[in-house]
């Protein structure tokens, strides 16, 4: 008779014993730019780690499979918010390279989902391992729709020159899919992709201050600059222009 509750290996692992393999994670950003990593770090500092990392045991260490953002947030919680976290919760399991890539892609469908380009990088790795297309679609079914999974697989099978354009952000996965339906050969696909990438290149416009910030600056010119309110408003405007996070701006209001 199957047990209704089974024991699993959820361990407390010293942060120093968690190994992050260079180049394994397909994420291009852990959320530093949009402030989501900082928000997660602040939450962990206040409430502790809620969701375990996943990894494979190797002696007295654990090789990280999934949870790279969570681990980075734990370190940031210690460094920025004074948390004193020395250990992380980790689910350990026996897994080969194929299983680890699948786990990373499925786990990446959490609070900050992987982008299509990041998914393509992972799927390309599975294809290079010889994993059948049907297995990829079925295994990613809980994270992506079947149609989307097939589109990502198709993009992952594009020639290396097109893959590089994807990697460099010169062309989108959707555009690659559209061009694949038009092209009769890899050579034609590469040429079409080059044309699409060239057409998508636009000279970078000078940064424009948003109309809202411009309005605030105009108000500052009218207001008495010696008042405390004017000084506060000026500080907020400077933070907005520097694209500070909401948390940083909120500190000015304390």
Quick summary of this structure?
This protein has helices at 36-47, 68-81, 97-107, 116-128, 133-139, 146-156, 160-167, 173-182, 186-200, 211-222, 228-241, 246-251, and strands spanning 10-14, 18-19, 53-58, 61-66, 87-92. Helix 3 packs antiparallel against helix 4, helix 5 (133-139) crosses helix 6 (146-156) and helix 10 packs antiparallel against helix 11. It has 12 helices and 5 strands.
CATH architecture of the largest domain: Alpha-Beta Complex
> Which series of helices and strands comes N to C?
EEHEEHEHHHHHHHHHH
- Chain oligomer state: single chain
Helical region count? 12
Proportion in β-strands: 5-15%
Structural class: alpha/beta
Number of domains: 3
Q: Biggest sheet: strands, sense, closure?
A: 5 strands, mixed
Distance between the termini: 59 Å
Q: Quick one: CATH class of the largest domain? A: Alpha Beta
Largest beta sheet: strand ordering: 1-5-3-4-2
Low-confidence runs = 203-208
Please tell me how large the radius of gyration is: 23 Å
**What's the CATH topology label of the largest domain?**
Conserved hypothetical protein from pyrococcus furiosus pfu- 392566-001, ParB domain
Walk me through the structure.
By secondary structure, the protein is of the alpha/beta class. It folds into 3 domains: 8-96, Conserved hypothetical protein from pyrococcus furiosus pfu- 392566-001, ParB domain, CATH 3.90.1530.10; 115-202, no CATH class; 205-238, no CATH class. The protein has 12 helices and 5 strands. The protein has helices spanning 36-47, 68-81, 97-107, 116-128, 133-139, 146-156, 160-167, 173-182, 186-200, 211-222, 228-241, 246-251, and strands at 10-14, 18-19, 53-58, 61-66, 87-92. It has a 5-stranded mixed β-sheet. A hairpin with a 2-residue loop joins strand 3 and strand 4. Helix 3 (97-107) packs antiparallel against helix 4 (116-128) and helix 8 (173-182) packs across helix 9 (186-200). The chain is flat and about 70 Å long.
